Amino acid sequence: MEAAQAAPITWRPPRFLAVSAWVSFVLNTLIIATGGAVRLTGSGLGCPDWPLCAPGSLVPTQELSYHSLIEFGNRTISGPLLVFAILVVVLSWRIRAQRRDLLVISLVVLGLVALQALVGGIIVWMHLNANLVGFHYVVSLALVCITAAFLARMYEPPVPRELAVPKPFMILAHVSTLVMALTVLFGVLTTANGPHSGDATIQRDGVDATLMSHVHSWPGYAALALTIALLIWAAAGRLRPLKWIVTLLVILLVQIAVGIYQARNGLPELWVGVHMVLASLTAATMTLVVLRLKRPVADPAVAQR
């Protein structure tokens, strides 16, 4: 333990690992946008087969419509996404003696990316089952959060960590995380019962979408109130997560504004897509807030501050 505490506070990740991890994060965010485009343009069955786009063809054929190009474009991103997930695992393996935490996170990412590919195929086979489509989005959102967590941990030194905020603040932050998760869950249920089913021939028979939009908004406003409380507390005490709480509040305000606009204007496809991407960025920022609740400990003197 003494040797671990005496480790230098400075740490730089290998450059290639840093670049690969950033690309992985961007691709996982981008695939939410393209996946949203698939659903919102009714292109969910643009490629009616999987893993091929059409029987006997990996790419769209002339007989297929522009929906095929949209769906195929979304599938195309899955290839680089998987490649970079594997690359991050390999590069993390090379420094596993120093950064076992990064290796573990990278393996989780790789496992979820593989799961996503499998679920995507099953969704096509089951003609866009609403529950599976919702699960598909939740996994993508989790991947954005986990790849963001990898980036945050990657830039911190490989030393023990200690709580950097008062314990009540930590509890409030975790409560805020739970409320954020409920907001996302109800958002997924709202979209699942809305008009954008992913294909014009598929109708959703479930909970009333208007009712769900109201239910979705309740934890959303609660999350906003909790974020403001965290911001005031963090600013007064100049706490470590302050910068990311400010970022969280800005994204959350934009997200709420977009949500209100789309609800009052008949759910226009573009703004529904923006809302989906912003939800992933909101969750990722909340993840960074939680990670900033602790700080690296370089030596006993730091631990006593």
Describe the protein in words.
The chain has 305 residues and is an all-alpha fold. It has 2 domains: 12-158, no CATH class; 159-305. The protein is built from 10 helices and 2 strands. Helix 2 (15-40) runs antiparallel to helix 9. Residues 1-8 and 300-305 have low confidence and may be disordered.
Brief overview:
With 305 residues, the protein is mainly α. The chain has ten helices and two strands; from the N terminus they run H-H-H-H-H-E-H-H-H-H-E-H.
Layout of helices and strands:
Layout: H1 2-5, H2 15-40, H3 66-94, H4 100-125, H5 130-154, E1 161-163, H6 167-192, H7 209-237, H8 242-264, H9 269-291, E2 294-296, H10 300-303
Antiparallel strand pairs: 1-2
Helix pairs in contact: 2-3, 2-5, 2-9, 3-4, 4-5, 5-6, 5-9, 6-7, 6-9, 7-8, 8-9
Low-confidence stretches: 1-8, 300-305
Sequence of secondary-structure elements: HHHHHEHHHHEH
Rg, Å, rounded = 21 Å
Structural shape: flat
Oligomer: single chain
Which sequence of strands runs across the widest sheet? 1-2
β-strand percent reads under 5%
Q: N-to-C terminal Cα separation, in Å? A: 19 Å
Helix content: over 70%
The total beta strand count reads 2
